Every structure is written in C-alpha cells, then in structure tokens.
Amino acid sequence: MTTPPKETALEQRAAEGAKMYSPSAARNRDNIRDVFVQTMPQEGEILEVGGGTGEHAVHLAAALPQVRWFTGDPDETARASIAAWIADAKLGNLHGPHAIDVTAENWDASLAAAYEGVVSINMIHIAPFTAAEGLFTGAGRLLRPGGKLFLYGPFSRMGVHTAPSNDAFDRSLKSRNPDWGVRDLENDIVPLARKNFLTLDQAVEMPANNFSVIFRKN
C-alpha cells in the first residue's frame, strides 16, 4: 500500500490501485453505522451522494442486508475507488457508482421518487452551500413519505460552534475556499428542510464534535 503525495479532500489517503483508504472513515464508520442502524429504514432503497472512497457504503450496506444501497460521487477518482470497494465487497445489495452532483440543476430529474433514505456523509461543509440546497431539494422529491435524510459531519447550533476545535476548523475551511464552512443546523439547514417538506427528527451527538442528523419526509 502506498500513500499519494497530494492531499485528497481534507486528509492524506492511502491507495491500493484504484481503492482509496480514508483515515477518517476508519475512525468513525462504526459509530456512524450504529446510529444509522438505530435511526434509518431497515429495508428498501437508499441513495448515497458524495460517497467519497466508498468505505461507508460498504460498511453500511453490509450492516443492512435488506437495503438496496446506491452510492456514487461526482469525482472520477472517487468513483474508481467506490467501484473497487464494491467489487471487493461482493455485496448483492450494494450498487454503483453513479456520478450524481447535487449542485447540478435538476440532478434528481431522472430518478423515481421511491427512496426510503438519502445519505450524505461529510459533504456539505466541504462544498458550496448550493450543494446543501440541491441535496435537500432532491431529497424532498425523491423520498417516500416517512423516508429519511441522514447527514453526518460538524454543525454549529443556533449560531454557536459546539467546540473551539470546530471554530478553528470552520476558519480553516473558509481559508481554503470561502464557499466552504461548518453549517449551522438551526439557521442554515433546518430552513432548507422545511422548504422541502422535511422535519428534523434527531440530532445525535457523535465523537470529535460531529453530529448525525436525521430528517423525516412529511
């Protein structure tokens, strides 16, 4: 296994052929899985956007064999990694990679409104806010009534960072790209949910000052 010299996303990732290994995914995948299994649908179809290396998709699809999991990423290198993880995992319920980009206008137009879940892990803080807007617009249309949208990552609450480290992380993100940043759950994200017929169901505190946030389709 070798490590590429360039930074991918916000971390150095080891690679073995096309397959990439995310240190952050290795640290948090069990915690995310545990909350996901407790809060999300146990069967039906789930769409993951911004799938990154593909490690979370494999971990979650393995934990929920009755779910048909569709994952992908707009980045070509990420899709190659996802394809490699899918091939090695040999899970009959894991499909992809798609190339969905939630910042694209009407990205969801070709998809049927038939999903029990939509998932985005560690995406909206390292993307322009149009990604969050597009994600919620699509989820509002694609989810069945009672279906759920699952987000994971850092959030501020009511305009206040939950830890000094998140404040520093937010400033670091904005120094890299002024369109990035830690989003505020109540002020930035909940209004998007309401606009798209979604209601905040749970906000679960996670290690390292992150949250798993679950919205339900009305």
TrEMBL record:
<dbReference type="Pfam" id="PF06080">
    <property type="entry name" value="DUF938"/>
</dbReference>
<dbReference type="InterPro" id="IPR010342">
    <property type="entry name" value="DUF938"/>
</dbReference>
<dbReference type="InterPro" id="IPR029063">
    <property type="entry name" value="SAM-dependent_MTases_sf"/>
</dbReference>
<feature type="region of interest" description="Disordered">
    <location>
        <begin position="1"/>
        <end position="23"/>
    </location>
</feature>
<protein>
    <submittedName>
        <fullName>DUF938 domain-containing protein</fullName>
    </submittedName>
</protein>
